[in-house]
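Open question from group meeting: does this chain pack into something compact, or does most of it stay loose? Before anyone orders reagents, we agreed to write out a predicted structure and look at it together. Recording both the input and the output here so the notebook holds the full record.
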Amino acid sequence: MTRIIAGAAGGSTLVSVEGNGTRPTSDRVKEALFSRLESYGVLQGAHVLDLYAGSGSLGVESASRGAATVDLVESADRAAMVAQKNADLVNRVLGWTAVRVHRSKVETYLDRVAPELTWDLVLMDPPYTVDANGVIAVLEALESRLAEGAVVVVERSARTPEPPWPAWLERFSDKKYGETRLWFLEPATA
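Structure tokens returned:
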């Protein structure tokens, strides 16, 4: 059972995607991630992009904790339907549409979305079948899409080696939680 941990919708139970096609982020990892993001001051009023969203649990947690907008991008039909249910739950609690679901491949979404749209926080939890080159390709597509002071969080298996990040991004932190590793990135300073 996955839940929203804190914020306006804190304690609400989320719908999970049946089967083993997705890897939900554990509540332990989610709590640690959002504690860190709140300490960085990037959540309040943020525009958030949740790529490979699965059930949308990270994105809806962002909205519950004060993000202004959240875009959930998920290509699998079943997962996108679950993400929509979770988005509807949080939007009802908030009283407005903060969370939107985009049923699309990540690359297609980034190619189609308005070029002037930028995000303050990008959450990226690709399937393990997406290799380092796939991760880098998506990060490259984000280069002109990050707001000043933006943070990118990449979630991977703790057994996966650190990818060679694009030159325009710097890793400023990483943390291992059991079988999960979170990489924290920001645009490189000149």
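Observations to bring back to the group:
The CA atoms of residues 115 and 145 lie 7 Å apart.
The chain has one domain: 2-17+28-187.
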